[in-house]
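User: Show me a protein chain along with its predicted structure.
Assistant: Here is one chain, sequence first, then structure tokens.
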Amino acid sequence: MSARVAGKVALITGGASGVGRATALLLAREGARVVISDIDVAGGLALAEEIGAQALFIEHDAGNETHWTRVIDTVREHCGRLDILFNNAGILLKGDIEQTTYSDWQRVQRTNSDSVFLGCRAAISLMKEGEGGSIINMSSIAAVAGRDDYVAYSASKGAVAALSRTVAVLCRRRKYRIRCNSLHPDGILTPMTTAGLPAGLDPWSLTIDADPMGRMCLPEDVAASVLFLASDESRAISGIELRIDSGQFVMSI
């Protein structure tokens, strides 16, 4: 352990599984106190128990404004500060502009983009009381490349990217010492992204470990980027869109 985030308090939404889980484990190993929030109570409690005294779990619907008030109040009460917010909660829904219903559209926006707006606003209120902090928002390569078969998802992640830039600018202008950046992975080997794969297909065969032309990375690859943006090593970095796609986007243009 190199203690790259020692003494910091990190809040991770959607923290019970996938990228959230990998990030919680990594940040805890690197010295942070980790607050895991998720609608998955069993998974969140199990992860907090696995990490130990450094972890706290809060049941949290990230698209609910009232829940955010409760979560920030709990972090303030138990931790006294907030240094890192990883807005990671999200859902994936397939469908193009002709197939997607308005109800589906609203559900995806609520979970993927409304939650990030609420999270950024809530985190700033606590971070600016202290020494500032780092906000890291989970977007997607779909936000910059576009996916016609995932119209609601692509649009929600585009909103996250634009919101992240506006937060970065505001925090600099107001001298809050709060940085905000967005992450843009391609496929990640998690249950959410592999659920729609054809039966019998080994997801591992699609990873960059199996083939350099593969599109999928591991949750730990994304967690490593979160750690960098959460640490003081990136103190001069704000407002960027960090692609984690092994050059996939560059090859497509």
